Structures are given as C-alpha cells and as structure tokens.
Amino acid sequence: xxxxxxxxxxxxxxxxxxxxxxxxxxxxxxxxxxxxxxxxxxxxxxxxxxxxxxxxxxxxxxxxxxxxxxxxxxxxxxxxxxxxxxxxxxxxxxxxxxxxxxxxxxxxxxxxxxxxxxxxxxxxxxxxxxxxxxxxxxxxxxxxxxxxxxxxxxxxxxxxxxxxxxxxxxxxxxxxxxxxxxxxxxxxxxxxxxxxxxxxxxxxxxxxxxxxxxxxxxxxxxxxxxxxxxxxxxxxxxxxxxxxxxxxxxxxxxxxxxxxxxxxxxxxxxxxxxxxxxxxxxxxxxxxxxxxxxxxxxxxxxxxxxxxxxxxxxxxxxxxxxxxxxxxxxxxxxxxxxxxxxxxxxxxxxxxxxxxxxxxxxxxxxxxxxxxxxxxxxxxxxxxxxxxxxxxxxxxxxxxxxxxx
Amino acid sequence: xxxxxxxxxxxxxxxxxxxxxxxxxxxxxxxxxxxxxxxxxxxxxxxxxxxxxxxxxxxxxxxxxxxxxxxxxxxxxxxxxxxxxxxxxxxxxxxxxxxxxxxxxxxxxxxxxxxxxxxxxxxxxxxxxxxxxxxxxxxxxxxxxxxxxxxxxxxxxxxxxxxxxxxxxxxxxxxxxxxxxxxxxxxxxxxxxxxxxxxxxxxxxxxxxxxxxxxxxxxxxxxxxxxxxxxxxxxxxxxxxxxxxxxxxxxxxxxxxxxxxxxxxxxxxxxxxxxxxxxxxxxxxxxxxxxxxxxxxxxxxxxxx
Lengths: 405, 305
Prior knowledge:
The complex is a heterodimer. By secondary structure, chain A is mainly alpha-helical. Chain A has helices at about 75-100, 170-265, 270-280, 285-335, 340-360, 365-375, 380-405. By secondary structure, chain B is mostly helical. Chain B starts with about 25 loop residues before the first helix and ends with a helix. The interface of A and B includes residues 200, 205, 209 and 230 of A.
C-alpha cells in the first residue's frame, strides 16, 4: 500500500505533520482481487494474517532503492546479479547505438568535411569564453558616518505629569536593603577584626598552656635526671667502697699470710743466728775468754819456758855429756876405749847437733825439737827429767843467759 | 534606554590616603609595583592599602609568594618615618600568621630589623619589638633571633625603653632564652631582671619572672639564679597578682633542681609557704590546673636536694 498523500500545504497549520492511528491487527488480504463486476467488496469476517507472511511488509535493506520484487520472497542474489548485468548490457548497447548514430559518413575522396554553421545568424565559437572584469571599490578610510538621530515626528498630544511624594517609592522600605548592606559590611569588618584579636588571644593562651606544660615536664625531667645522677653517684660510691673493702681484705689476708710465713721462717733464724754467732765466737764466756786469751797463752809460754828449760837442761846435759865424753874420749883416746862409750858418744853427737841448732833458733823450731825430743825414747826423758829437776834452778840462770844472747 | 553607566564620573574616593586596590588576584602585584615607585605619596598610599589587605591570611600567603618581603626589607630603611612605621606594622600583621612567620624567616628579615631598634620614632620601635616578639614564639624564629645577636641589644634596651616596649622585650627574651642563655648571662641580664622584679607593673614582674624561669632551665643559669635571685622570687610568691606568683613559683622550681648544690633559700621558703596560702592558684585565669602544679613540683625538687 502506498503511503497516504500529504495534505496540501494550503492548510497552513502551525502544528507539524503528525500521523497516528490506534494499533490494529492487519486483516488478511485475499490472494485474488475481487472481480470487477462486484459493486462492493462483501464484508467477510476479518481473518487475521500472519505478519511474517504478509506480502505488504517490506523486508530487507530499506536504504537502497529497491525494485519491487515480483515474488513475495526476496529475490536471490544470483537473480539480482543477472539483472544488473542485463542492465549494464542495455546501457552499453544504448551508448553504442548513439555513437553509431552520431557519426557521419566518411568524406568522399578529394573532399573534406568542414563544420559549418547553418543558422541564420553566425556565431563565433571558440574555446575561450569572453570575459569582462568589472571592479568596484569603496573608499577605504571613511568611517561609517554616525546614524542620524531618529527624531520621530511629533504626533500625539502633550501631556504633563507630576510625581508626588510617596508615589514613586517608599523610602523606609527602599532604604532597608541599603542600610542592611551598609551596616552588615561594617559589622562584618568589625567582626573580622575582633575575631582576629580573639584568635590571637586564643593562640597565645594555647601557647601559654603549652609552655606551662612544657616547663612542668622539663622540671620533672631535670629532677629525674638529678635523681638518676644521684643514684648513679651513690652506686659508684658504694661500689668504690666495696672495692676498697675487698682490697683491704685481700691485703690483710696477704699480710697475715706473710706474717705467718715470716714467723715460721724466722723462728729458725734466731737460733741459727745465735748458733752462727756462737760458732764464730761472738758470744763468749768472759771467763773462758779470759782464760783463753790470757791464761792459756801464759800457760803456753810457761810451758814453753818449761820445755825450753827442759831442752836447755837437756842441752846442758848433752853438752855436759858431750864434754864429758869428749874429755873421756880424749882421755881414753890416748888409750884405746871400748866401743860402747863411742857408740853413745856418736849417738849423742847428732843429738847434740840437734839441740844446738834448736838453742840457736828459739821458738820456731821448738815444736820440731820437741818432736825430736819426744821421738827419743822415753827413758832419756825420764833421766833428763830427773836431771832437769835437779839442775833446774841452775839452768834457769843459764837459760836467761842464753836468752839474753 | 537604560545603560550600565550610572554616572560619567568615577566613584568617589572614600579614603584618599589609600591607593585604590585592583580586583582579585591583581591587587597585590599592583601594590608591589606601586611600592617600588620613586614618588613618596604613591609609596605611602600603597603601604596603607597593603596594611588593610594583609589582615587576610590568603593575602599574606600571596604576598610571600610574589616576593613582597624583599621590597619591604628595602623599605625598612627608608628615610620617611611614615613609610617605616607602616612597613613595620605590615610585618607585624604578617608575623601573626604562620605563613608570614615562615616567610620572614626565609627572607632573613630579622637582621634588618636590628637596624630599627634605634629608630627615633616610638611607633616604629614598638612595631619592631612586636614583630620580634611574634617571631620569638616560633622555635625557628627564636633561633634566628639568637643568631642575629639580638639578645645583648635587647637586654641593654630593657633599661631605657618605655613600659609597653619593655613587656615586649621581656616576652621576646623569655622565648629566646629557652633555647640558650649564655649570651644573656654574659651581658649580665640577671641584674637588670632583678630590678624588674620589683617594678610597679604586674605584667612586667610576671614577664621578668618568666625570663628568669627560662634562664633557670639551663645549668649555667641555675647557679646564677640560685646565688642572686632566690630571695626576690620568694618575696614575689606573696604578690597580689596570681600570675606573678605562678611565674615566681616556676622560676623557683627550676632553680632548685640543681646538681649537687643545695639552695639555702629553698629551705627558707618552705617555712614561709606553710604560713601563706600560696596553694590557691585556682584564681589564675588561664589554667587553674597547671599553675598549681608548679609549687608541687618545686617542693618535690627541693625535698630531693
């Protein structure tokens, strides 16, 4: 069905074109037209058709112009292509025909075709089109002149008017907003200033509070520091004292040990010292010493004297015997003597030599002579002893004489 | 037909002493250009306008960003007193905000302020001291002030300046000496502070006691305080103003936490405290709790020494 024709524009309605209809189901269309003879189509009961199989519904792309398909289903692509080719061929044929038609027959030999204008009036045909340039320029520096004042012609009647007081405006009402603004701004400014000062005061108060807290805490910190320092010093002192005590204890122990050791060491010292001294003769019994130093030497000298006396006696005796024997020898030499007197005389000669030597060298060889004397048989001693006793006093004088020699 | 032009004339200038401020972001750059102009009137007007603008912290931030402080530093040494006064005022307002303080530290403004301590104008000096006081509240600022060698100068000026300025100087000193006290002790600050402890004004006594408190936190300060100031501080404990009592108690607290040496004055105080009611510090306006800590802590310290 074609869309309904637009109503003619002579309607000139302000409302734009709209079309609306209530929705209704599409009745089925009979396949064949009603026969021409029929006056009116009879009213059949409406049969509802399926929209999908309705021929009136356009299917497919509505953008391109589509030839109305002859069949209900949309045509095959193959058929479309065929139709296109057919169209193209038709166009080509048409062009070819035109070309053939336009070409004039070839000129006869010796002649030339010339284009000729056959109209009544000849016209010049050329490629160049005749152009004529025309310029127009406004005056560059002229400003647009001001539009003249529009003074409309005076029409109408003159009328005067007068504004009475209170007619134009009510001052009290009108002044309100102005006043509000003025006063408001002033108060705002004042508030700002006051707030600034208040803010400053609050900041200062805040700072003061903070400073006080800080001072209190600082004092606490310092106090604790002091306390800590004192404790530490106390601890140090205690430690020091303890160390000293330990030191002293150690020293005392060592001293005691040393003392014990020394004591033990020295117990033996005094006796040994005394022993040594005693042995080296520092402690002496004075009487003993006396005896030793005085008595014994004296005794020894006395003994020496006595022995010397004895030796002297013996020497005297020996000399006596020698003189006697010599005299006897002299006497007897005149006459031959028995051997026994000679033998003792010979025996006495070495012994005479010995005592003479001894008498010459006094004290040094006394021991030697004493030894030699003691070597002599004890009988002689006894004999000489007897003699010495007798002649002791006489010998003493002789000894003194020999000593003075 | 109505047009947007209400009047052919410009709006009336409400305050001819101030430069007109450009709109929005352009205000401060325009003012910074005007400040550098050779004409005195322009400079003064620009400074007045700046002074108003700088109350807003955002403007402070922007001013620091565009490098206003360099210009202000050169203006501090201007020959005209109004210019100097306004510049110092601007610096004070900037120092009230942390951004401004940081900017002042970074641009090394404090050494330049040293020159202004001797300014003939009272207001300039007052503003300078206010700036220093604000800067000292910041630890980096206090360090800056110490490095600039301002402590001896401030101590000297304690004797000569007026009461208001003395309060400011004492405030600065107390914050700076918290860091390091050796310079102040070298310039014999204790003697001057002892005089201030007997000043008629309660604020000055309070602040002087606080300075002594801060000196007492350092070991070398403790011995000096112990020797000379304890009797005065003890007498201050019976003062009428609770703030003064609190500060004196604090100073004593620090002075008595001493290594090895016992303070004989402390024992003297123990007797006096039992008779006077110095315990009732609840009248103190700011912090009832902490100001009453001080005598407790201090007594604890004394009992340990």
